[in-house]
Amino acid sequence: LNWAKICFYNHTSPTLYVCFIKSSEARTRGGGAGVYSTQSRRRRSWVWNQFFVLEEYTGDEPLYIGKLHSDLDKGDGQVRYVLSGEGAMSIFSIDEDTGDIHTTKSLDREQQAYYTLRAQARDRNTNLPLEPESQFIIKVQDINDNEPKFLDGPYVARVAERSPVGTSVLTVVATDADDPTYGNSAHLVYSILQGQPYFSVEPKSGVVRTALPDMDRELRDHYLLVIQAKDMIGQMGGLSGTTTVTVMLTDVNDNPPRFPRKSYQFSVPESTLVSAVVAKIKALDADAGPNAEMDYRILDGDGLGTFRMLTDPHTQEGLVILIKTLDFETKTSYALRVEASNRYMDTRFLSAGPFSDVATVRLQVEDVNEPPCFSPRISQMAVSEAAPVGTEVGSVSAHDPDASNCPIRYAIDRKSDVENYFDIDRQSGVIRTSRRLDRELSALHNITVLATESLDHSQVGKAVVLVSVTDVNDNAPSFPVEYQTSVCEDAQPGQIIVTLSAVDLDEAKNGHHFLFSLAAKAAWNQSFVLRDNNDNTASVLTWRAGFLQRERPLYFLPVVISDCGTPPLSSTNTLTVTVCECDLHGNRRSCVQEMSALLLPEGLSLAAVVLLTGLLTLLGAIRRRRKEPLIIDDERDVRENIVCYDDEGGGEEDTEAFDMFTLRHLNETKRSYHVTAPEPPPSREDKHQLFQEFIEDRLREANLDMTAPPFDSVQTYALEGSGSAAVSLSSFSSLTSLESEQSYHFLSEWGPKFRKLAELYKDREGGGAS
After folding, report:
1. 255: exposed, middle or buried (C-beta count within 10 Å: 0-12, 13-18, 19+)?
2. Is the pTM of this model over 0.70?
3. How many Å is the Cα radius of gyration of the chain?
4. What positions does the domain Cadherin occupy (predicted)?
């Protein structure tokens, strides 16, 4: 570089200069150049402009950049120039003696545009700085060495078909790495190399636009453009870059649907099921996507009520669907006029014509061998559950729909009548019962009747017959559950211990009405009374006070329940009442069934408890009797298995064996319990009934007593009651003459349980004492 001489005046030291001079000029020094003033302190500064160097230098020799010089340099070699900073001694070098600066490498402005360095003059001998260190810049000057580049290319764009001229498609952008502030190296111009005459590009902005109107996607759906960007404002010698743009034409609805044919013909078997597709037709539409979606419909014809049309969403086919069964014997062909139209319209193109098309569809019905048909297919019949076997329930009828009119044979599908309740006549179709019916087991029978052609057994028709079984009164009412209730020992008369209800399996037209009562053998019991509530329930109340669990822990009340059917039916149900020990608040503390529950598995009823207890007692007695020696002595009477005890009764104080108050005041006790229902004067039969109940109660208690003797025994009571209705309860050995005159024939009327006792008293009436 040729630098002009530049001198800077230093206000603080007017005698000092720093100059850059042209190599062809003489250096000029101010007055007293090189002389150091003693009147002011020495201050020096380096001032110069920027250095410039061209990039991409390819010469063999180092490129000269400029020269550094100090006024202190006398040319005697005592001054040494030093360079430091970016690229010092690696990219840039300096001659220590002359201060000439060279570059040793080729520079690239796009990598680094300038370098900052520092220069200093030093004394060669002492290496002390002669001048303060100063900073300068070497700027790399640009040349056009970079072509434009499309960083976002290649491009893909879309534009609607039939777009007007000048419609913007997209904008392409190229970049140039050269310096845009220096020359025209980065000034670009765009042009289109491929894609004319369909598209154009704006030279400065790079906007690509349509250049032709009415481009049709159906003829050509995409175009490939080549766009060029050139620097140096497009002048000769400029660098250029290219990119591609793929333009896709998007569809618009500019084409109506068209049928390839105006008439279609199909064959349909008459056995085709309803909802089946019997024909498919398709109109063609050159458009794509939603613009090609169509709707099909039947305009007119003789099959409007037999067929309908739908559009397959995947194939855009028109589907002809059967909505009513076909019958070749009734109608052999159908003709339909169908229309296909676009679902979405573009109003810009409606002027070109209607976007729909019409075609004719002919359907020919084919004859097939059909199975027999029932009329009706579902029949309802009714029969009484009391109907005898062989009763006619009803009949079904089927016919062959074909012209051959083949004979029909009937049968019942046994899968629908597994238990063979019904039979059918093969010829007439009459259905009869084949066994007794029970409405309570099955109120409705759903059977399937089969009709088979006699000449072709593969042709089978089916019908459903619903047989309802009507009800008769053949079930007696009963308890809904097994009632087991309890009563406290201190219960008072008139206390409700349980409320009973009933169920009846029969069907009542106006609702059930039940009547409750005690069985005849329990009507005169002295403990409980039953009250019918007249609402299909009954209440059981205590009739007396003072129950003793140790004397009688259980009561069994036979309850008779009657219905009001025709004929009326009744049943006897047993109510078990357990005597319990209770606290002052009426809460149970111990009952018989609670003890039984500890001994027996869950699920055994109270009757089973009593029966099992008796069996265990009997087995224990048999085992003890087997161990006893077969010795007969005077102290044992084995004739009636009567055990003799050698102790006398306790008299009135003996309250453990029997309630003496009851024996003494039997008549008064009975009268005291008749509070709610007055009792007529007791007759002889009533007295016998009283004794029978008393003995049965004692027998039941003995059977339930686990500690009682295993043999039949007679307990002796030494007290003779006064005025007792039982006359006397003395032992056999204390009978008086008056007692022997009494007749005991009534004992033989009490059944087999009292047969031994009747025979014993019969012998005494005959005059024999034993």
Report:
1. buried
2. no
3. 66
4. 70-150, 151-259, 260-374, 375-479, 479-603
